[in-house]
Amino acid sequence: MKIACVLNSNEITSEVELIVFPEAINKSEISRASNLYENSVVVGGVVENRNCRAFIQHRGLNRIDYLKVGTDGRTIGLDNINQIPVYEQKNICIGTLICMDIDIPDFSISVVERIRSSSAKVKILCVPADMGGEWLQGDILPFPKKYEGIYFILCNNIETHQIRCKSFIADTSGKKIVIQNGVEPLFAQIP
What we know:
Blueprint: E1 2-5, E2 18-23, H1 27-36, E3 41-48, E4 51-58, E5 61-62, E6 66-67, E7 86-89, E8 92-96, H2 105-116, E9 122-129, E10 151-156, E11 168-170, E12 176-179, E13 186-189
Parallel strand pairs: 1-2, 2-3, 8-9, 9-10
Antiparallel strand pairs: 1-13, 3-4, 4-5, 4-6, 7-8, 10-11, 11-12
């Protein structure tokens, strides 16, 4: 499975199966990517009415209904931890947590456990984010056991923070296999 972690559709130069955008991407960009790469699954976070709605879009339809739980400087959360932002298709299970929602234990653990319990061969957690540089530092996820068996893809916005968390793709053991240097797009092939 080929993955793209990008800021806009123009950064994609070949067919990919999964496209991950950051938090605060325009809905039109998700639609554009979905139209250009109609067989791809497209993930991103769109700001709506001071909240952020996650998209796992496939074949033109959003396959989940998830509004960001936590409140931060960008958006107001809804505190609804009863959402299940997970989509399964064939042998792939993709879940998403928007930005700081990875740090809300009751919610993030339930989403991760839902992904982990899937019978799908490939399990992925996508995190559309707008994080400062203090988040998820180092070459290994801070809590690798929490995400064990799940690919972890973080696509971070570049517009808000002077020092920001770099976008990355981590393998199922929590080791970052691709880390952004500047603002370049990331691509990875996973089994």
